[in-house]
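Q: Cathepsin W, please. Structure only.
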Amino acid sequence: MLSTELSCLLGLLAMGALAWNTHPTLAQSFEDLPPATQDLMDQFKAFQIQYNKSYADPAEQERRFEIFADNLAWAQQLTEKHGGMAQFGVTQFSDLTEEEFHQHYQPAQSSYKEPSLKTRKHPRLQRPLIRSCDWRKAGVLTPVRKQKKCRSCWAIAAVGNVEALWAIHYEQHFELSVQEVLDCDRCGKACKGGFVWDAFLTILRQRGLARERDYPYQDQLSRKGCQKKQNRTGWIQDFLMLPKEENAMAEHLALKGPITVTINQALLKTYRKGVIRPKDDCDPNQVDHSVLLVGFGQNTKDGAYWILKNSWGSDWGEEGYFRLRRGTNACGITKYPVTALVGREDAPGRPCPR
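A: Structure for Cathepsin W:
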């Protein structure tokens, strides 16, 4: 919670609430502010401008400012804890409490257990055969999506997986309909959450998906329900669970293409850039957010890391992506490594750019 001194400061600010602008119009953004020299109020106003935030009245403005200050203090602690390896700070979620954030972005608990998925046999490797891989450089990834307040990360990650595999194996580039997965899914819970295999089962049942332009995303269930589109694209042969071992995941990623993973999102709310290096603050057994694993690397400054594509828009993190420490099962990244199968499994892959 806020310190006594900061609470007193907030009380004084509340007395001057009429001077607050609940609909700021200054042509500035958080990026324009020197990070350690502007006071909290300036940073909060810049946050409102950058993310188009406004509040009903001064009382709500004050409450959101308190939450903002708490989140910023927590972000500073995380940055210090990471020793500069990663930076945490203002994001579009900075005026949300933990409860509100979880309400909008943490999937509801599933009422059923993980199914017995087909698992590819793979010898245990001592080290990756390839030192680095970044599928972003190959032009096979679609733009970063923004799930908004629909808990659709599971569908977005699965659809992104299929899109990337089609671009890699068939050199066909298109955006598929996430909305069709939500509307036509029978196993997951649509905007309440789901697993990536729910999405793959839906794609198999639908015999492919419509394109995004024909069946656009609405961040809620369509009133018309599941719509039967004639033009099907991006079908898959099957899907499987990869070995829950990071070297095997890295080799498959480099040779075949991006895969989906489900992680604990505890450290993502205030993430801005760098390599997240969790310690005791990201339980690997409590995974609740599906993303697309698109690469990995290693250097002297950052060590070994994964590159992941999120679904919170390109104005979050590193242009919609984030990096996570590799080799320690950070945030439970090895729990559910799942991928669709596109084309022949024994077909030669396209080299992953380094």
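A: Brief note, in case it's useful. The CA atoms of residues 75 and 88 lie 5 Å apart.
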